[in-house]
Specification:
Layout lengths: L5 E4 L9 H14 L6 H4 L7 H11 L6 H19 L11 H10 L3 E5 L5 H7 L8 E3 L12 H10 L6 E5 L2 H9 L3 E5 L10 E3 L7 H9 L1
Parallel strand pairs: 1-2, 1-4, 2-3, 4-5, 5-6
Helix pairs in contact: 1-4
Length: 219
């Protein structure tokens, strides 16, 4: 007999690689302020809110700014980021994601999104997978950024599953920590040496076979 569990997915770097678009948008802001911003610096922004991300960039350049200036840069960054999303389609889904979503749906499992992104819904729509999700919790629904577990706890509540029956797919250290703090099972997607706090680690979704998913479902 199948046991219903909750599978919660982060968005950026897990389902789609919009991280590259975030980087380009943030880099444009950083360049305009003469702040050096590399791919290594961008790692500091993983799983972090837009407001905090800007603060980190300003700290990198030791730049002081008024709230009005910050608000203007936040708007500029988001407009630049959205311009990259216009042409997104199913081809933007990371390898192996769709088979995993299909397997979970075929086995009547509950699926939620738990992301800091405020653009989650349009991304899910453009990539053709919105219908897979029973609940969506994004940056518009939470007040505390990861590693606070709020986003995942809300998702589990919407799915009506206890934290012990929730599995979180994450690519950031803050996200893994949030899942662990929320007493959920964390599954790291990416570099296991970076995501070593996760209960399980996989390079990407192509490495996740149905036996592993079935093991989680039957737990």
């Amino acid at each position: 007999m199948k046991k219903t569990k909750g599978f919660i997915f982060d968005l950026d770097g897990v389902i789609v690689d919009t991280a590259k678009y975030h980087y380009l948008a943030w880099k444009q802001i950083a360049d305009s302020l003469s702040i050096e911003f590399t791919h290594e610096h961008n790692e500091l922004l993983k799983g972090v809110s837009r407001v905090r991300s800007l603060d980190i960039i300003l700290e990198l350049g030791n730049v002081q700014a008024t709230q009005e200036q910050k608000d203007q840069w936040l708007v500029q960054k988001n407009e630049e980021y959205l311009s990259y999303l216009v042409n997104m389609d199913e081809s933007e889904l990371l390898p192996g994601v769709l088979p995993v979503l299909n397997y979970l749906k075929e086995n009547q499992q509950l699926i939620a999104l738990g992301s800091a992104s405020k653009n989650a819904r349009p991304i899910l729509e453009k990539t053709g997978i919105l219908s897979y999700f029973d609940a969506i919790v994004d940056g518009n629904d939470v007040s505390n950024a990861k590693p606070d577990p709020e986003v995942f706890l809300i998702a589990a509540k919407l799915l009506n599953v206890p934290a012990s029956a929730a599995f979180v797919f994450e690519d950031s250290v803050a996200g893994i920590q949030a899942a662990n703090i929320g007493n959920m099972t964390s599954i790291g997607i990416g570099d296991a040496t970076i995501l070593h706090e996760a209960h399980y680690n996989f390079k990407d979704f192509t490495c996740i076979g149905t036996p592993f998913l079935n093991e989680l479902i039957q737990r």
